[in-house]
Each structure stands twice: as C-alpha cells, then as structure tokens.
Specification:
The chain is an alpha/beta fold and 795 residues long. It is built from 27 helices and 21 strands. It is elongated and about 145 Å long.
Length: 795
Amino acid sequence: MQHSDHPARRANAPPLGPQRGWLRWIEPYRVDESLASRFRARQMQAVQKLTRLAMVANLVNALAVLMALDPRLTRRDLVVWGLVVAMMSAQGLVGWWRAQRRGPQPNASLRALKRLTLHSALLAGAWAALPVLVLPGGQPEHQLLASVVTAGMMCGGGFLLATVPTAGLAYVSVLGIGGALALAMSGLALAPLIALLLLSYTAVVMATVWATARLFGARLMAEADAGRQGEIVGLPLRDFAENASDVLWEIDAQGRLRAVSDRLATLLGQPAEALQGRELGVLLAAITPPAHEAHLHLADLRSRLADGAPFRDQLLAVHVADHARWWQLSAKPLTDEGGRAAGWRGVIADVTAAHSAHRQLRWLAHNDTLTGLRNRHQFRQELTELLQGGSSWPPHTALLGLDLDHFKNVNDTLGHAVGDELLREVARRLQSTVRRADTVARMGGDEFAVLLRQVADRREVHALAQRLVETLSQPYAVGSSQLVVGCSIGAAMADEAEADTEALLRNADQALYAAKAEGRGTLRFFSADMAQSAQRRQLVEQALRSALAGHELSLVYQPLVALADNRVIGFEALLRWHHPVLGVVSPSEFVPVAEDSGLMPEIGRWVLRQACAEAARWPSSITLSVNVSPVQVMASDLPAVVREATSAAGLAPSRLEIEITESAFLQEGAGAAESIRALHAAGARLALDDFGTGYSALAYLRRYPFDTLKIDRSFVRDMLSRSDADAIVGMIVGLGRSLKLHTVAEGVEMPAQAEALRRHGCNSIQGYLIARPMPASEVPSFLARRAQTDVGIKV
C-alpha cells in the first residue's frame, strides 16, 4: 500500500478488509490486510467500552419483563426465555471481564470478530422471541410492553454495535425480522401496517449502523495515515539523530538531560546511562576551559536559556578528551499542554574545524601573510581607533614610515624567494627592536610602518628610529648570501598633524620621501616645508575639476573569461585620465583626490552612464563590471544613478555588476547598508572586490547580498611561488563555492596561474593573459577574433 493512496478512496482496491468470505460483502469500507487486525482490535475495543453497561441493561430489562408478566410465569417458555437472556448476558459480562484483565490488544483475529457477531445474533434472537411469545393472544398492556422493549433493544443494541457493522447489522436484522414475524402471528387488525413500520424502522437503524461504521472506519483510516506520515517524518529525524554532524539534546524544566543518545554521550565523553538526569549546565561548566573568553560564552548560553527564547549558533569553548573543541548550540524551548515551560530541545554542532578556519581567515584579513605583521588595512584601522580614542589628539603618539634601501636590487638579482626571506627577517628585527606597546605593519612591498604609543617627545622618537635604522642596516644571512640593505625613515608626530588618519599617514610619507631624497639610511621628521607632494595633490585636484568638461577622462575595458569553456562573459570598465600637461595620471593618484575633493560622485555618474551606453551595444550575454568608490557607496543616490544609467542606455540591470572594495566598509554606516541592498533590489549584481585584503570581509559576506568574490591580484601573483598564497586562493574559492558565489581572479598573467585557478575551482579570470584593457571601439573586433579563431587559454 502506498502512503499517498488513501485506502478508503481506492475504488479498485481488492476486498481485503477486516472480513473474509461472506462477511466481506457487508463491510462499509475496505482496508489492506496489513491493517485489518489493528482495525478489528479498535472495533472490539469500542464495543467493549459499553459491554458491561449493555449486559446489565439486558438483565434489568429481562427481569422487568418477567415481573410485568408475573401472572403468565406459569408458562415454561417465558421462564426458559428469561434464563437464556440471563445466560447470554452473563456470558457477555465474562467476556468483558476477561478483556479487561488482558488489557487493550493491538490486534484482533477474524475469529474473535465472528464470535462477537454470532453472540450478537443469538442475543437478538433471544429478544426476538419475546414478541413471539407475548403478542399472540396477549393482553394489550403486555403486547405494548413487548413492542416497546423490542424497539428499545433493537435501537440500543444497534447503536452499541455500530463500530462492528457485521455484528450490528446481524443484531438489528434478527430482532427486526423476529418482531415482524411476531406481529404476523398476533392476529391483530393493524398487524400488517405495524410490521411494515417496524421493518422500515429496522432499515433506518441498519442504515445508521452502516453510516456510523463508515465514519468510524474513516477515522481509523485517518489515524493510520497519520501514523504512516509520522513514520515518514520520523525516518529523516532518526537518520538525522544517527548520522548528521549535529547532535540532538534535550533537557527538562530543571535543566536535566533526558533521552541521551549514544552520539551525545560520545560528544560529552561519558556513558549515556551516567548522563541521564544530569544537569546540562553542570556538565558544560565542568568541561569549559579556564580562559576568560570560554566562560563568557558559557555565561551567554546560560543567559539565553534563562531568557526562554529560541536561539541559534551560540558558540561554546570546551575541553573534552584532552582536546580543545568549539561547539555551536541552537535550541528552542518546550512547553506542556498548559503552556508552561517544559525544558529545551536543540542540537550541538562541533564547529572546531570551521572555527579554526574562521580564525585563520580573520588572521589573514588582519595580517600580512608573508611577514605576519599587521597589514595596511588593519594598521589604518588601529591608527584610526587610537586617534579617535579621545576628545583631543593623543599628545604622545608618533608614526614612522620605513622603506628599505636597495631592496629592488635584491629581487632583481637574487629572485623573489630571497627577497621574501629578507622581508621576513626585516619583520623579525623590527618586532624585536620596538617596544611591546608599539605596532609594526607591512604596508606593501618593502614599505613598513611603526606606530609608537606613549612617547615623551621628538628626542625619544628620534632615538627609537635611529635604533631601527642601525638594526636594519646590519648584514642579513639569507641562504648562502650575505645581504646589506639600508633603511630610510620618515616620522610624523600626531600632535603636529591634522585631526585624521590620512593627514598623519601623509605627513609620514612626505617625511619618508624627504629622507630618501636626502640620502639613504636617514631619518627625517615631517615639517611644513615638505609641501611638494601636497602641491602635486593640489595641482591634480585643480586639473581634475575640468577633466570631465575637457573630455580628458576615458574608459577602457578588460575582458573576463570563464575557466570552464574559455568563453568571454564580460568586461570590467577601467577609468583613465590623460591630461595635456600632467600626462597620464594613474587612478591610484587621482581617485583619492577625487574622493577627498567631492568630485567622485560626478565622475562616478559619468563612468556609469558611459559604460552602460557602450555595453548596451555588446551581445546580451556579455556583462559589464563597474568599480565604485567608497564615497559613491556611502552616497544615498547611487541606486538611483544606476537605475538612470541602465534605463537611459537600454541595458538590462542584470547585466551590470557593481564592484565594491572592502575599504568601502571601513566607514560603514546606515547609508552604505541601504545603498548596497537597494542596488541588489534594483536587479544589479554585487561583487566584493580585492577580497582577502580587508579586515572584516567575512562579516560583510553574511550581511550583504553579494553575488561575486574577486580574488585580489596580490594572491594570484604569488600563488605559484608561495604555498600560503596558493592556500589562501583555494580557501577563498572554497568559501565562494560554499556560499554559492561566483569567483573571479584578477591579475592572471601566466597560463600556469590559470591552470592552478582551474584546479581550485575558480569560475572566471581576468588579466594580461586574456587581454590588456582596450577601448570600447576594440571590443567588437576582440569578440569576433575569439569567436572566429577559437582563442582559448592554453594551460
């Protein structure tokens, strides 16, 4: 029998109901034989509930009839009738008593049902004998008594036996037919009419028995279906409890464990029988390590249990079987029928591996993978937090910018492997020379920075910086080579800078530039006369204000290719500026100026309009990626600008992908969150650019609806020569796959890089291996060449 096919509704089902043989022809419903014995048991139990009352009623009625017919007791046939009714009633009571002693049985045999039907028919025959004995020649009051008793017993017995239709129909039909025969023998003038009425009443009672039996059968069918559905639902639950990585747990209102599974016992490191009834809070406290963080997690769990509200992903640090583990608990409260708290049920997931990976990713996001020092983004964050820590600038904070002298020569002559080892040794010397309270960061390449906290004055800063110059200038033993590199340092005092991070970093950079210009291995403090870079910045800003009107800005497009089939799937728009006097100005120089000067929104609008207009002429399968600056993301009108640009160009929003760098979140606020979500709602795709270089990318992946992860070119560049870079790429691709995000690798220049990315499962790549950025006019010919010559990535 299939679960989805209700037995009561299967018109073509074989007649394998609770009965067999001749009995099956009077069954009001059919049921598979697998359920027949259970249904018979329920039928019998329904009758047995009223058997005692019915048998007592038979005895009382028989006694009342005999007492009413007292003058006629000289007739032996009436005495015999009374004894027969008494004996059958007694037999019914004995059967009821035995059933009570056995208790409810899950199954009943066909033989038991036949015995009940036979007993019912015989008892009906006994009561049918009463009108036969009394109506012919009887006194009117006796005839009335016999008629009333007969009708009452027929109705009462029919209703009592309605759940067993064979017994009920047999009882009613025998009693009705017997009454009709007695009327026929009575000789009464109205006997034919009364007999006809009696037979009609008999038919009505039989129909009622039939209908009641069908309703009872339908209820049994429904219960059986519900039971099967419960088993179906229970199968995955049992499978979950036995095989899933999560472990089920349950506690009562007092916090004591119940229904302890073997897997929970294994997780807690104790036998199941020893855990039953133990308080979960006490058990967890016993395996919580002494670390402050671990006790905070345990306190959070207790607080959530006390609140009585469902919770998810509560982290917990434990120490089981000499191993440190991380668990994640989710649970919901249980209530009894009265709505009172009855405990908790939930799951425990061992997330040790995921937690370790998350911590590693966090470390990678905060630190430079080569040296282990703080990376640029984290250093800027810490510097910002320090400078914003009070209402006024800290009076004793200094920033050192360091640059290695002649490092490029090491890379060019001895290779990047030697250069990387030299950088690691420089990092070790820096950390061993500065004080414990200071922070050292690698800003990129051979550039480092040191944040000096709580210095007395310039003289102390000078002494520390001079010690760094001397330490870093000592020879390095790298492999078989003895290397000597110098160090130039620019210093800026926080109390002498403007009240922001950029000003302090700019001052230190200008001082470093002055130190390198003055001679290698020197230290220079920032001073007001170091204005050359500031003048250049001002010149760039002034020229940038007329760049749009003068048509000096242009866009080039770099193709993105799917690794699966080497098919061009899109282009990224890149902004270029050629000034008639300044020449070609790098985006890394003019974009920060545009952001600081408030020009970025206007330039960004132009970029979106121009790029959408040009992309609208491409094939519909080709997408367009546009990188927006943090200033644009923070602006509330970015979604409207995107809608206007796509609408004006006739470009489907789904073909436009907005790339957002992680730096956009450093000043995250409500405006950025609303802007990002509105962009996604408008149909545009969202890409997280330069993934892995920021300080909190994982949090934003959960918070915002990104579609694409773009792997930073620095990881791609080093993945063939450094195992840690290759591991990071693999981890990012795996993260994207788990989150169902499209992954794109930037800066792919060699076939070997493409092959490595393919092995990791990266979806798409872009870089010089495919093509250099090209003007829009060259895009059609580029696509045609690839289509005609089957240009592919040969790896």
